[in-house]
Amino acid sequence: MDAHRGSDGPAGRAVVELRPARESDLDLLEALTNDPGTVGEYQWFGWHDPGYVRRRWQDSGLLTTDGGMLVPTLDGRPLGLVSWHRTRTGPHAYCWNIGMVLLPEARGHGLGAEAQRQLVRYLFAHTQFNRVEASTEVHNRAEQRSLEKAGFTREGILRGFDFRDGEWRDHVLYSVVRADLTAD
């Protein structure tokens, strides 16, 4: 798979490149999924199997027909990870559900919005699904702004949607459909 490079876009927008994970990324990806100090407040869901990411990379390179994981980079430096998985939307229809975790030093600079924008374009260019969705906790204002900057539309609140840090959390649901890209 070729890397997907962000467009130059409006002045000031960072050029983010998405690429497949490399063996040299595995320690970073493990930290982004299993280290509370690296993942941040809204992504820490407790300890899990420490070999999971490495085994998935060995089995599939973290890319399957049902989902995957790519590494967003800026000037060759990894920024974190973006991921997606197939979600059923009807008896015969599916969409992509995406997620992202950035390194602490990459947060707050607009890089996440650009990485999510590039992931949406990548998924629409290489799959036939019509919808990409994402959700975030209602108190995660930074991620809500990131999704909106990436072109997602806020759809509503998912009550009691996720369990983190001892309590059920409400989420805000966002989506992009193919027609949204042609409207740009």
Automatic annotation (TrEMBL):
Signal peptide: none
Pfam families according to UniProt: Acetyltransf_3
Protein name: GNAT family protein
Organism annotation: Amycolatopsis ultiminotia
PROSITE patterns, alphabetized: GNAT
PANTHER family in the cross-refs: N-ACETYLTRANSFERASE DOMAIN-CONTAINING PROTEIN, RIBOSOMAL-PROTEIN-SERINE ACETYLTRANSFERASE
SUPFAM superfamilies per record: Acyl-CoA N-acyltransferases (Nat)
Domain N-acetyltransferase: 16-179
Superkingdom assignment: Bacteria
Cross-referenced InterPro entries: Acyl_CoA_acyltransferase, GNAT_dom, Ribosomal_N-acetyltransferase
